[in-house]
From TrEMBL:
This is Cysteine synthase. It catalyses: O-acetyl-L-serine + hydrogen sulfide = L-cysteine + acetate. Pyridoxal 5'-phosphate binds at N82, G182, T183, T184, G185, T186, S263. Its EC number is 2.5.1.47. The modification N6-(pyridoxal phosphate)lysine is found at K52. One of its GO terms (molecular function) is cysteine synthase activity. Pathway: Amino-acid biosynthesis; L-cysteine biosynthesis; L-cysteine from L-serine: step 2/2. NCBIfam families: cysKM (TIGR01136), cysM (TIGR01138), PRK11761.1 (NF008735). Residues 18-289 form the Tryptophan synthase beta chain-like PALP domain. One of its GO terms (biological process) is cysteine biosynthetic process from serine. Its cofactor is pyridoxal 5'-phosphate. The gene is cysM.
């Protein structure tokens, strides 16, 4: 029997291996009345359950590499949910204290998941207030704000991973990319990559219609618009009605077997609209997370008329 210590992989290597590489699946029924191909990128398959695992991992690891932070430090972030959960996971693995500020209206499942990873949760009235509170805490020396809204490591994560995956998985045939916009990191990074590969790929960003409240995506007031956002990288912006996003999230689960949240329902609704307009299109949309984060909201308790 060998006395040598096994060469186990480091936690960083393990996360690097398992964050991303998510499946791309074709919708079989919701777009069956069109001739287009509608593909869903299932980001709920990431370790902490959302597309935000990618930037959370990259933001912390890159900050470490630059010497900005070291294990034992306190990190602060304003979040609507998924980024907070992902950051809490990586922080727990790397040995950081995590303080998360989020709107009180966020689902209980999201709050519980953050606390499960050991994060301290501070509730706010709005996302704008959460961002202001995070900045104030940093100015008071409480810790470092990673600032997903202005951190280029956010969009870089998608430029380095999500974009190449989509290009490879579609064999370069993608014609339209659809993504809800919150921090805008996902759409910025993927747009940069896809446009380098084929400038004709249409990048479609989604925001809630006036008066709609859709978890994870925003119509930002000008003063709070994420600084990583570059409008020139988005070819079209579509408004998503809350009622349609919710109905489509339920249809996605009941007709396709894909359980996801409201913003993902909005992405599929928009993708089907594009499929109706473009019969030869190959459309990829981001399914941001899993539907189990929304069970307490009653999203899936509604029975819609056929």
């Amino acid at each position: 029997m060998s006395n040598t210590t096994p060469d186990f992989q480091t936690d960083a290597f393990l996360l690097d291996s398992y964050v991303g590489k998510t499946p791309l699946v074709r919708l079989q029924r919701l777009a069956s009345h069109t001739q287009a191909t509608v593909l869903a990128k299932l980001e709920g398959n990431n370790p902490a359950g959302s597309v935000k695992d990618r930037p959370a991992y990259n933001m912390i690891m890159q900050a470490e590499k630059r010497g900005q932070i070291k294990p034992g430090d306190t990190l602060i972030e304003a979040t609507s949910g998924n980024t907070g959960i992902a950051l809490a996971m990586v922080a727990a693995m790397r040995g950081y204290q995590m303080k998360l500020i989020m709107p009180a209206s966020s689902s209980q499942e999201r709050k519980d998941a953050m606390r499960a990873y050991g994060a301290e949760l501070i509730e706010s009235a709005t996302m704008e207030e959460a961002r202001d509170m995070a900045a104030q805490m940093q100015s008071e020396g409480v810790g470092l704000v990673l600032n997903q809204f202005g951190n280029p490591d956010n969009s870089e994560a998608h430029y380095l991973t999500t974009g190449p995956e989509i290009w490879q998985q579609t064999g370069g045939k993608i014609t339209h990319f659809v993504s809800s916009m919150g921090t805008t990191g996902t759409i910025m990074g993927i747009s940069k990559y896809l446009k380098e590969k084929n400038p004709d790929v249409q990048i479609v960003g989604l925001q809630p219609s006036e008066g709609s409240n859709i978890a994870g995506i925003r119509r930002w007031p000008k003063e709070y618009l994420p600084t990583i956002f570059d409008a020139s990288r988005v070819d079209r912006i579509m408004d998503i009605p809350q009622i349609e996003a919710e109905k489509t999230a339920r249809k996605l689960a009941r007709k396709e077997g894909i359980s996801a949240g409201t913003s993902s329902g909005g992405a599929v609704w928009a993708s089907v609209k594009l499929a109706e307009e473009n019969p030869d299109a190959v459309i990829v949309c981001i399914i941001c997370d899993r539907g189990d984060r929304y069970l307490s909201t009653g999203l899936f308790s509604v029975v819609d008329p056929e």
